[in-house]
Amino acid sequence: MASDTSKRSSYFLITPMALIFAVFLVIPLLTIVVVSFWDYDEYRILPDFILENYSYLLSSSVTWSIYLNTLKYAALTWFFTLVIGFTVAYFLAFHVRSLTWQIVFFMLCTIPFWTSNIIRMISWIPFLGRNGLLNSALINLGIVDQPLEFLLFSDFAVVLADVHLYALFMVVPIFNSMMRIDRSLVEAARDAGASGFETLKSVIVPLSKPGIAIGSIFVITVVMGDFITVRLMSGGQSASVGLQISNEIGLLQYPAAAASAVVLLITVLLIVTALLRLVDIRKEL
Amino acid sequence: MTIEKKVSTKNLETETGVSRRGFVKGAAAVTGAAIGSGAITGFPTIWAQNIKDVTLRQFGTGVSNINAVADKVKEDLGFTLQMTALDSDAVAQRAVTQPNSFDIADIEYWICKKVFPAGTMQPMDTTKLANYKHISKLFIDGKLTPDSEIAQGTAPHTVGFVEGADSTTFASAPTQWMTLIPTIYNADTLGIRPDLIDREITSWADLLDPAFKGKASILNIPSIGIMDAAMVCEAMGEVTYGDKGNMTKDEIDKTIAVMIDAKKAGQFRAFWKSFDESVNLMASGEVVIQSMWSPAVAAVRSKGIACKYQPLKEGYRAWGGGIGLAKHLSGLELEAAYEYIDWYLSGWVGAYLNRQGYYSAAPATAKKFMSDDEWGFWMEGKAAEGDILSPDGKVMEKAGAVRDGGSYEERMGSVACWNSVMDENKHMVRKWNEFIAA
Asked: Is B222 in contact with A244 (Cβ distance < 8 A)?
C-alpha cells in the first residue's frame, strides 16, 4: 500500500517533465519521421508512404560527399577545440592558484561570447578577405607578394570560425572536471617520481575524461548540424548536412529535408553512443 | 438636389442596418458634407472613413518592400501598410504554408506559378482597377511591341490570369481575373568591375573565362542560378536548349556538368544568396564578374567603386514581380487592398521604382511623376543632362552618364529568358545541390 502511494507520487512527479518531453521532443520527432515518408511537388507535401526520399538520399553520391565533408569539419573542429580547450582549462585549473584569479580569467574567456554567434563569424570576413586586414598586413610586411586566397571562402575559414565559436564549449566541462581532481593525487604522483608529462598522462587526462567527453559531445553535435557557418565562411562553396537540410526546407521539399534530418539524427546518435561507451559521464552529473 | 441626396443617405442607413448606424449618427455632419461631394459613390465614401483603421500586411522580397511606399500609402489612402522583407525561398514558403499571415503577397511570377495553384490566394477582378488599361503589354500578352518575340521561361503573361474567380488554373489568354498585378521587373545581366578587368566583356561565356579564375561568382538560388548557368553554357556553345526555362533532364545534367568542371578548376570565389552578399563580394574586390541585380550594382557604385551592369550579346535574363491578394481577404480589407493596388499603378510608385533602376508596370502613369531628364535617362537611354538622383536624394549618376544597356525598349526588348520554375524542378534542384557540394 505504502509502496503503491510512493509509486503513484513518483509517477505524478515525473509527469510534467514527461509531458514537456512528449510535446516538445517526441511528437515533433515523430512528425519528422512520418513526413520523411511523404511525397512532394513544387509547392505541396503529399501524405503518402514512399521510400524514395531515403533511397535517393542513401544512394546519391552527393550525400556521401556531404557527409564526408561534414565529418571532416567536425573532426578538425573537435581536434583543435580539444587541444585549445584542454590547454586553457589546464592553465586555469593548475597554474592559476587563487580562486579569484581563476574566476577573473574564466570570465575573460567568456567575454567574446557576449556578442552574437553570427557577428563573431562575420567579423572574420573583412579580416581574412583578399584585400582584408591580414592580407594587407602580410603584403606590407613583405612576407607574401600575392594575397593568400585560401584564407577566406575555404575549408580553412570554416574550421577557423567553428573553432573560434565553440572552443568555450570544450573549456568549460574540462575545467569543471579538472577542478574536481584531488590535488593530493598530483602530489602523490610527483612524490612517486613521475615527471610532469607522466602525471598529465596517467593522472590528469584519465580523470578529465568525463569533461572531455561532454565537451566533445557539445562540439561534435553542434558542428554536425551547423549550416550558417559553413555557408558564410565557405562563401556558399561547400556543403554540409545542415546546409542541405536548410536548402531543402527553402525549396519547400519538407519530406526530403525530414529524411535528411532523420539520417543526420541517427548518425549523431551513433557518434554520441560511441563516446558514451568510452567514458562514463554519469560521474560528472 | 441636396434633399435628394439626403434621402439617399437615409436609405443607405436603413438598408445597411445596425452596424453602420452608430457611425452615421456620430458623423452625420461629416457624412452630409461627404455625400454632398460624391453622392453617386455614397457607399465607398463611408468606407473611406473606416478605411483609416485598416492595416494591410504585405510581405515580399526586399526589392519592392520599400518603407517610402508604406508612408505614401498612409498619406494618400489613409490606411496602414505593414511590410516584411524575406528572401525568395522564404516568400514562396510563407505564401503556401501560412496563408493567414499576410494580406498582400508581393511575389515573383515564377514563384506565382508554384504558389497560386496551392489555393492560398485569390485572383483580382480587373474591372475594379481603373489603371488596368495602363499596364504594359508585356504582362498582358507577352509582347512589348506587337512584333516582339516572346522570351523563354515563365513569361509573366503565362501565369498572369486564371480562368475564373475561384480558379487556380492559369488561363491561356487574358481574362477578367488576374493573379498578380505587375509591380516591378527588370532585365538582369552580369555585373563587372571595369577597373579590375582590362578587356571588353561581351558574352555570358566570359563568366567562365579562366582569366577570372577565383574571381567569379554566381547566385545560389537554384531556380535563378540555373538560368544564368544556362545562358553561360549556351553562349559557350557547350549545350543547346529547346527552352532554357523548361529544360529536359539531359540539358540540366549537361549544364551542371559544365558548372562542376568550372568549380573544380577554381573558377568561383563564392556563391551568393542575398542582395547584400553580392554587393559585399563586388565592393571588396573578392569578385570581379558575377551574376548581379541592378540595384546591387547601384549600391556598389554609391560606395564610389566602379561597377558596370554589362549588356551582353545573348540578351538578358528577366524577372518580374507583382502583388496579389490573400484568399482570406474580404469586405473592407479587400476594398482597401483593391484601392492600394490601383494606387500602385497610378504612377507615384512607378516613378519611384524607375528611379531605382527597375521598371514600372505602367510606364505611362509613371512618366507624369518624373522629370523629362529622369525619364530620358532611365527610360529612353539618353545622356543625363543634370545629376540623376536616387529616390532618397543621393546622386546616383553625374550629368552626361548614360544608362548601361540603353533604353527600356532596348533592354526589355532583348530578354532571352524569364526566371522560371521547370517541370523537372526536383531533378534540377538535386543536380544544383551536386554542383554546390562538388
From this structure: no
For residue A17, which phi and psi values (nearest 5 degrees)? -65, -45
Contact across the interface for A44 and B115, Cβ inside 8 Å: no
**Residue B157 within a domain:** yes
Do B430 and A236 count as a contact with CB atoms less than 8 A apart?
no
Query: How far away is chain B from the Cα of A165, in angstroms, using its nearest Cα?
Result: 22
Contacts of B43 (CB under 8 A, 6+ apart): B12
Closest CB from A131, A235, A238 relative to B285: A131
Q: Are residues B194 and B296 in the same domain?
A: yes
d(CA B109, CA B234): 24
State the pLDDT confidence band at B23, using cuts at 50, 70 and 90: very low
DSSP B371-430: -HHHHHHHHH-PPPSSPEEPTTS-EEE-TT---TT-SHHHHHHTEEEE----TTHHHHHH
The domain that holds B294 is classified in CATH as 3.40.190.10
Ramachandran angles phi, psi of B58, nearest 5°: -115, 140
pTM, full prediction: 0.77
Among A62, A153, A253, beta carbon nearest to B269: A153
| DSSP labels, A207-247 | HHHHHHHHHHHHHHHHHHH--HHHHHHTTT-S--HHHHHHH
Write out pLDDT tens, residues A165-220: 999 999 999 999 999 898 899 899 989 988 888 999 999 999 999 999 999 999 99
Q: What domains are there in chain A, each with its CATH number? A: 61-284 (1.10.3720.10)
Size of interface A-B (CB pairs under 8 A): 82
Question: Are B115 and A149 inside 8 Å of each other by CB?
Answer: no
Nearest 10 degrees: Cα torsion A90, A96, A99, A101: -120
d(CA B420, CA B318): 10
Across the interface, which of A43, A125, A231 has its CB nearest the CB of B115? A43
Give yes or no: residues B30 and B152 share one domain: no
**Strand B388-389 to strand B395-397: parallel, antiparallel, or no bridges (unpaired)?**
antiparallel
A62–B contact, CB cutoff 8 A: yes
